[in-house]
Amino acid sequence: MKPLDLTLSAKKQATGGRGRPRQSDLRRSVSTVCYELFHCVAITVADSMIGTNKNDRNNLAYRQIYRGVTHTQIRQNCNRQHVMKDFPPEIQLLGNLITEMHDKRNEADYDPFGILYRSEVLRDIRKVEGAINSFYKLKSSERRAFAAYVAFKTRNI
Length: 157
Known about the structure:
Number of helices: 8
Helix content: over 70%
Largest sheet: none
Strand content: under 5%
Structural class: mainly alpha
Radius of gyration: 16 Å
Order of helices and strands: HHHHHHHH
Shape: globular
Number of strands: 0
Distance between the termini: 36 Å
């Protein structure tokens, strides 16, 4: 899966059909874009640990690492601003969006009275798309450092 493919799905959910989109479509769009961020990180962690060469990697190990990454772990570590400040601005932005979109996904999924607006959802989609594109332009060593940080529980030394 390519995370940015989820952007296309989220846009389609937010803009599909005629007239105003259904709240259910906007809610699905928010959830999709949140998962886009998650998959971006999970892929980065698995690529960093197992490798990117599909012909040379163990798919069982890759799947294990990919599935071992949790929303909770990523979010907790992205919320540690005293550590995140040492990463490049592009990673700080990604981390902030992970937290922000996780909150929005929870609201979209679980608040029966919440109202979403297409313009806000599309703005969030553009922000996430831009942040992911900027993240992928970073040096691989910077992406690997972030992957190592978010993949594991932080322990004091």
